[in-house]
Amino acid sequence: MALPRIGSADMTIDQVAARLKGEIAELDDVRIQVPDTVVCRVDPATLKDVAHRVRDIEGCGYEMLNFIAAVDRGDKLEAVYHLYSFVSNSYLELHVGLPRGKAEVDTVSDVWPAADWHEREAWDMMGIKFLGHPDLRRILLRDDFVGHPLRKDYADLVENHPYA
Amino acid sequence: MPSVFDTPAPDAALQLALDRVKRSEEEGRGSDMEGLAFNQVVVNMGPQHPSTHGVLRLVVTLDGELIKDVIPVIGYLHRCKEKLAERRTYYQYIPIVDRTEYLASMNCEWGYVLTVEKLAGIEPTRRVEFIRVIMAELMRIASHQVAVGTFTADLSPLGTAMAFYTFRDRELILDLLEEASGARMMFNYFRFGGVRYDLPDGWVEKCHALMGKMPKLIDEYEALVKNNAVFLSRCLGKGVITQEDVAEYGITGPNARASGVAYDLRRTRPYSVYPELDFRVCLAEHGDVYDRYQVRIDEMRESVKIVLQCLDMLPDGPVQVGSLRAPYVITPPPGECYVGQENPRGEYGTYIVSDGSRYPYRLKYRDPCFCNLQIFPKLLRGTKIADAVAISGSMDMVLGGIDR
Fold first, then answer.
1. Nearest CA in chain B to A137
2. Which of A123, B256, B282, B321 lies at a CB distance of 3.0 to 4.6 Å from B298, suitable for a disulfide?
3. Which domain holds residue A17?
4. Residue B239 CB burial class (10 angstroms; 0-12, 13-18, ≥19)
5. ipTM computed for the complex
């Protein structure tokens, strides 16, 4: 299957945002970041459903997962899904806030296979658990590493370093 | 007491591969498939292996020469770059960005500087924009020269000759970059709203002369391999990436364009002065190893054109907005943004969250190689082990970027 020509839908970013708001009611707090990004908030419980629908929307489907960034917001952890739509040539950021003590969210690696490694990285660095992920191992740090170093409360303890 | 002569326990990736072999053995028991898994051998390719171009490790399950399964293992070059950002000022962090994708340092610096400039609302001067495009495109040529040279060197002794040619010419470009920035590979050249030094006297003429010569040199590379039967038989139709794969796995850069996806941020999300420049987005249609090589060769030619245009259009003016001290004390207002930029290997972007202090609150890279590498198991399954080398060479990995 060939991908649609980039930007062939010829929509402005306002039209894209209006379209998204109209089609998917679960997107909260929809904002536009100039020039070409729509930013919104999604409840973790509905993420999987939203992901499927966002990918398959007629006319501006977000077929490509660009990356997942995990951010420590203090009271919560946040997973930021950055998506790209070929047909409307626009980006979509889904911000999913997760409680610190129970940072769990459904995997989207069956929606976009690219999510596989990005989710592993978010687990490795920030300790966000992706439920249903096929192989949630550490990816950049060694297997026996203790803790999730990009959390702001991470303490680098000597006893965590077996080789020190 | 463990001794050095004990066989070390397998790590997680190796154990995973062994488990999969065991499972396929058990599944085959008592059926027509019985004994088929018996011949499977698990081999560690890397992290020290000449054709993995860095410390990439592939845990490969082989059945004779056929690859049954691949598990890439990364992280051997992890240097905590995202954590380092949180303890350094924006300005102090520039040289660290150099060391992510070390074959394209200029482009990486630009990616980071672009994001901070957008956060802080800084507009560089026009002369700066042109200097940046020149540096980035020179770097793109140099980076593709390494990519094409090492890729062909993996294929055959003939290709080793090619690597000599490309590395010879890359040095000419690095000389130019060194003269402008003071360093050969780790430039530390970009500043917020400017560049570190103006171009030295006579640099424009030198660059002009080299770019005039460059198309001929690129012809030379092509002449070496273009009609070579061995080269073609190892490239044509191997490791095909479809357009669907491009979207599913988030593949960008020449690897995506070789499959006919015109995703080039210089055109789809234009930044700097690229809209004013005349160049073509190089595409191919099959997405095989040969097309990925061809797209890189074509892109080198386009980059030469871009540099020549910029040299002609280069305006006069300051190379830093505001005072010379301006880039040292930068405090972007609270907020966050992501800016992607077209690196030689694909979309290289930085996502920065600012809390209004002098330090980035969170910095995250979107590295093209990290995303491109994910498709490896899919590409390699069912191919011969010798093709694995050709395919991984054609994907052009830089482990410094993957592991960060």
1. B12
2. B282
3. 13-160
4. buried
5. 0.87
Q: Which of A56, A65, A139 to mutate to test binding with chain B, by most B CBs within 10 Å of its CB?
A: A139
Output DSSP code: residue B10.
P
Model-level pTM greater than 0.80?
A: yes
Q: Mean pLDDT in runs of 10 for chain B (404 residues)? A: 69 83 75 63 78 80 86 88 88 90 90 90 89 92 91 77 87 92 88 88 91 91 84 85 90 91 89 89 89 92 92 87 74 89 90 90 90 90 86 86 86
Chain B residues in contact with A150 (beta carbon < 8 A): 82-83, 362
Query: Residue A4: pLDDT band by 50, 70, 90 thresholds?
Result: confident
Claim to verify: residue B156 and residue B28 sit in the same structural domain: no
Q: Which of A6, A113, A141 sits opposite B78 (nearest CB)?
A: A141
Could you tell me the sign of the dihedral formed by the alpha carbons of B80, B85, B87, B91, in that order? positive
Residues 6 or more apart whose Cβ sits within 8 Å of residue B336: B119, B351, B352, B353, B354
Do B69 and B166 lie in one domain? The reply is no
**Do B52 and B98 belong together in one domain?**
no
B145 in the same domain as B59: no
Say whether pLDDT at A164 is over 60.
no
Domain boundary among the residues B54, B73, B92 is at: B73
Give the pairing type, strands A76-85 and A90-99.
antiparallel
Residue A99 lies in a domain: yes
CATH code of the domain covering residue A25: 3.30.460.80
User: Same domain for B360 and B268?
Assistant: yes
Domain annotation covers residue A90: yes
Task: Please give the backbone phi and psi of residue B378, each rounded to the nearest 5 degrees, phi first.
Answer: -65, -40
Chain B residues contacting A via beta carbons under 8 Å:
11-13, 16, 74-75, 78, 80, 82-83, 242-244, 246-250, 260-263, 268-269, 337-338, 340, 347, 349, 351, 353, 362, 364, 366, 370-371, 373-374, 403-404
